[in-house]
Amino acid sequence: MKYWFKRLINMCVGTASSSHSSNGIQSQRLSDSDTEYTKEIVHFGRLLHLKSFVAATDGNLSVRLDDQRILASPSGVSKGSMQPEDPVMVDNNGVKLAGKRNVSSEIDMHLTIYRLRPDVRAVVHAHPCTATGFASAGIPLDQPLCSEILMTLGSVPLAPYGTTGTPELSQTLVPFIPNYNAILMANHGVVAYGATLSEAYHRMEAVEHFAKIALVTRHLGKQALLDNIQVEKLLKARNRYLNQIGT
Ligand SMILES: [Zn+2]
């Protein structure tokens, strides 16, 4: 048996025996507006699962409720079958304030994005097959291939690999967070964020869609990239559009 596989088996056994621990803190109650956000997390979690952007209990979503509190999906639950009582409220350090379950083990990534981007109020992390394929092949989605993607997402860089569930994962993202709204995570998946959970989810969807288009051009053996003048015109149009809608 290969070394890495033996280690994996040992770790999985260890995880199973220590799962579902909870500190039992339920000191805060959700307000009516907070409850609306729990419904959003459940809704977009289901979409992530329906679209096969996640499998089993993968992926996580969160919403920044205010300066002090973040509502996030729990660990160990399929995002396709979350219930309104499942999301967990944490503070800016990831300490649980309310909820029956444990918060996602990747909450640190969400907290890092909120710290670096005051404009961001929602984060979605998933493992969509095509985009994660690019991330696992070490290929960023940063080529000017499609006008629509340039208008909406811009470019999607590839962050170096970082171990899940450790601060290393967030640290690899730090240089990219200020300048991008979606990032490929090497050998892992994608994180996307925005002013609302709907925007963050749509950015995740756009990344996977773009990855599929990029893959088709690779199959066809040709990529006719937009030139600098075309890109410049699109970016100007994008700025005009953003100014019109006031973002
Ligand atoms: Zn992940």
CATH-defined architecture: 3-Layer(aba) Sandwich
The third-level CATH topology is L-fuculose-1-phosphate Aldolase
Please provide the count of β strands: 8
CATH class: Alpha Beta
Q: Segments where pLDDT lies below 50 for 5+ residues? A: 11-26
Shape: globular
Instruction: Provide the CATH superfamily.
Output: Class II aldolase/adducin N-terminal domain
Q: Kindly state the mean pLDDT as a whole number?
A: 89
End-to-end gap: 55 Å
Q: Please outline the major beta sheet.
A: 8 strands, mixed
Number of domains: 1
Small ligands present: zinc ion
Q: What proportion of the residues form beta strands (DSSP E)?
A: 5-15%
Report helical residue fraction. 40-55%
Question: What is the H-and-E element order?
Answer: HHEEEEHEHHEHEEHH
Strand order of the largest sheet: 4-3-2-1-5-8-7-6
Counted by DSSP, the helix tally is 8
Q: What would you report as the Rg, rounded to the nearest angstrom?
A: 19 Å
Structural class: alpha+beta
Characterization of the model:
With 247 residues, the protein is of the alpha+beta class. The protein has a single domain (29-245), classed as Class II aldolase/adducin N-terminal domain (L-fuculose-1-phosphate Aldolase), CATH 3.40.225.10. It is built from eight helices and eight strands; from the N terminus they run ααββββαβααβαββαα. The chain has helices at 3-17, 32-50, 107-116, 129-137, 147-152, 167-173, 197-220, 228-245, and strands at residues 60-64, 69-72, 88-91, 96-98, 122-126, 158-159, 182-185, 189-194. The protein has an eight-stranded mixed sheet with strand order 4-3-2-1-5-8-7-6, sandwiched between helices. β1 and β2 form a beta hairpin. α3 packs parallel to α6. The longest helix is centred in the C-terminal third of the chain and has 24 residues, at 197-220. The radius of gyration is 19 Å and the shape is globular. Zinc ion binds at residues 106, 125, 127, 164, 188-189.
